[in-house]
Amino acid sequence: MSRFDLIEIPAEFSVQRSTPFFTRANVPPALLERHNTAEGVFGQICVFTGRIVFHGYADLDAPEPETTRVVRAGAFIVTAPRYWHRVELSIDARFNIHFWSNRARTERTMYSTRQS
Predict the structure, then answer these.
(1) Which among 28, 85, 95, 99 has the fewest CB atoms less than 10 Å away?
(2) C-beta separation of 17 from 90 below 8 A
(3) Does 116 have pLDDT greater than 50?
(4) Is residue 99 part of a domain?
């Protein structure tokens, strides 16, 4: 079991924002590159059709992922605050993301990229 398997959203957190459904046609390019969620924000990636491959990195400069997970339709994966990751999509992938926090963050950034 890795530290990644121990991620649990705290009970007092709630969804602060959700994205629309993404496919290969409209996924923001930043999600396909290494990025992370903001401090205090958990990301829940929910796959509705197809699959995504989630790559998690120990830090911004890690050359290889420390974990790679395949998330299939009907499943989800949670990423901890400030955890560097990226996703790959199958041709038929359709997913969205819920951002969980213990405080209202509707006007604040929920994730950052290498360029941020």
Answers:
(1) 28
(2) no
(3) no
(4) yes
**Domain around 46:** 12-103
SS3 call for 83? coil
- pLDDT (0 to 100) of residue 1: 41
Residue 69 to residue 53: CA distance in whole angstroms? 6
Number of neighbours of residue 69 by Cβ within 10 angstroms: 16
- Indicate which CATH number applies to the domain containing 40: 2.60.120.10
Domain count, the chain: 1
Phi-psi region of 63 (alpha: psi -120 to 50; beta: other; left: phi over 0): alpha
Q: How many residues does the chain have?
A: 116
What pTM was estimated for this model as a whole?
0.85
In a domain, 108, yes or no: no
For the sheet with 94-101, list strands across it.
14-18, 94-101, 42-49, 76-79
pLDDT at 109 over 70: no
The answer to whether residue 38 is domain-embedded is: yes
Element (H, E) at 94: strand 94-101
